[in-house]
Amino acid sequence: MIDLAATVAQRPVVLDGGLGTLLEARGNDVTSALWSARVLRDDPDEVRAAHAEFVAAGAEVVITASYQLNVGGSIPDAEVETLLRRSVSLAREAGDVVVAASVGPIGALRADGSEYTGDYGLSVAELRALHRRRLLILADAGADVLAIETIPSPLEVEALALELAELGLPAFVSVSADSTGFAAVESRAEALRTAASVPNVLAVGVNCCAPATVTAALAEAPDVPLVAYPNTGERWDAATRTWHGSAAPLADEVPSWVAAGARLVGGCCRSTPADIAAIAAAVR
After folding, report:
1. Tell me, what CATH number does 100's domain have?
2. In whole angstroms, how far apart are CA 57 and each of 192, 273, 283?
3. Which member of 13, 33, 134, 252 has the lowest number of beta carbons within 10 Å of its beta carbon?
């Protein structure tokens, strides 16, 4: 397993792709509000196998199936803790790779589209409290790094940055570049600077966005290792829970992302092991 902090200072590292997309392609139902966490609960062997497919394709970092999981939802808190720990152990079994524990936004638990707006009506203190227990569990479960991903607003980035500073575990922080929560001028750049100011944050950047928005978003980031793992260009309709449009080859954009400073590069929703293999080849 690579030393992630040391490696991103030297070269780009390949992340995995869309776990839910691959689980669905393997015949699993991911249409519920739990997405891939439903498979984590009911068929963990499928999650392990999906992680292994991404590793075989060239992923050096595997992101766990914990994005939608948090206490206070429809699953009892004790079971949530069990599943969070399981998500880390399954990723660990996929190969000799870095295990990044996925921490999605509060909107992911709500499954109401607010993960694309950050419009929760909550204060920084309330957001910190809602994230804290999950962060502690994932850190205790043995994750190598925390993948703070698809964060849709400056307020939630601030809350998570404060929690990460106290926790001390290595992390990377990625915002949703297309979120309306960053509509204000300079708000996304400020959020990335806030995240990068935490000593244990290894990289900052964007995910779960259109590939065409990545380069401009990275240009707003501070001079630190950057993260880029967008969707494949299709558009998600949160009301109908369906994708629309056509996919774009992510690997074609990788050279420009790396030139902009990206050191963690992969795919998010709709990206497959084939996409990750192409990205790994582009990185090499």
Report:
1. 3.20.20.330
2. 30, 6, 13
3. 252
